[in-house]
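Extended Data, panel c. Modelled sequence:
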Amino acid sequence: LMKQIRNQLRIAAVVPVYNTDLYLKECLDSIFSQTYQSFDILVINDGSTDKSKDILECYQSRDSRLQLFNTSKNGGVSRARNVALEIIEKKGIYDFICFIDSDDLVTNDYFESIVRNFTSYKSDCLIVGYKSFDKKQQHLPDRSQEIRPFELDQENAFKFCFGLGPFSQKEFNSISLSLWNMTFKAETIKGIRFNENLKTAEDQDYILKCIGRSNQLTVDNNIYYSYRIRKSSLTN
């Protein structure tokens, strides 16, 4: 069955890029090494002034699944993601949308887990475990113990994503307050856009809108995403 599903379900990975040439190759390599291969990477090069564009063009020439869109000047991450969402909706061929930051990494079974979770559970969105790493740390997560995914209804999905109520005291390695460890059904979030006027909390604003449209959230606390801590990143 997984083989049949494999050829049908398509993932769109949205990757905004702004001056991350030091980390970009590592990020792209982690995406292209996926065990599940039915995906496209929509890269919005948001007016980068470093070598990011050269790196992206090089990868694009090797694999047409990297779709590159260059903006002439830096418009910010929300604008870049909105450009990608417009393209995704115009094409109308994708089942799932995930967001990956261009300095982060994903495990090679991340997309596999996306497809598995969405086919096993009838949820509209998925949130997965992540770990942070910096220059001194190894980024590969320890996967010796598999954690069983679980589902939450809409009300609890809100609470979970923001670590509120019953989820405030517990240790979950999937509560990030960010978008990069979440995946959504393309159909569910159709038409939802990022608020380009927000300078902070744009992720949270978008998550609220998406969960408002979702009946159910799947939580998979196994670690599939590695979040890079660096001094000059947007979050810092």
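The first strand starts at residue 11 and ends at 17. This feature is highlighted in the accompanying rendering.
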